[in-house]
Request: fold
Amino acid sequence: MHGFDSAGIIRRLALVVRIALAAILLAAAVAKARRPSVSASGLATYGIPEPLRAPATLGVVILEAALAIGVAAGADAEAYAAAALLAFFAAVIAVALARGQRGAPCGCFGADSRVGTTALVRNVVLAAAFATVPSLPSGAPSSDGWLVVALVAAFACIAALTVAVLALAREVGILRLRLGPESALDVAGEGPALGSQVELAPQAPPTGLTLAIFSSQGCRLCRALEPVVAAFRRDPLVNVTEFDEVDDAAVWRELGIPGSPYAVALDASGRVRAKGTFNSYGQLEGILASAERSMHAHA
Reply:
């Protein structure tokens, strides 16, 4: 039976701490590099002239990345240098706080970092942690040690990917809000006239809309868009009703539907508020958005 190797466990934990600190320093460099122009603008807080901000930001990014690699590789000199760099950052932030610049951009972790007590304490703690790294037990880890390091790195990567995916989803949502809904194809003279009265059962909820979907059995696009239509059925303020080209041919002729897939949005009184041919979720959403704007405009 093997004895309890406490020294080996301590060395592994020391290696994990070293790599974790290096990862934090590398994350700071990556955060600055993601939006260099915005990160550079944060240096205005410290009175750095504009022509020097971009080169200074690039220099800090390169320095932090180089120190992170050195610390992860086990170099004590890089650990002391990282501690000195973070102590310098803490001193600069302390001066900014003394000047009443709380809340100004600090550029520590990219565009969203702000001058404040949290940033000051973070830099002081990290500086102290890097300063103690050379005092930690060293030595090449065994295969089990490398396994621990690999697991920690894997979980760190998973966490980073999760943050990246959430950030990407947020950016896509903001972009979609800025772009607005897609426009459906509405050709003049096709379909019922806007503002005309149409009776389709069942009617919309008192404060909602009726979305009449015109589809055909032989229309492959209509079949592909069935999940899109189903999504709108779940909206309590929208009454979705479908009309088949064969089974509801009389309705098609009466409204002059040009083809499928086609949608007509009506208010609670049966008045046509928007219409058009659609081939995506965004275009169908655009028809509803146009109908809502029309209702508000004539309220």
In short: The beta strands are 209-215, 238-244, 262-266, 272-277. The longest strand covers residues 209-215.
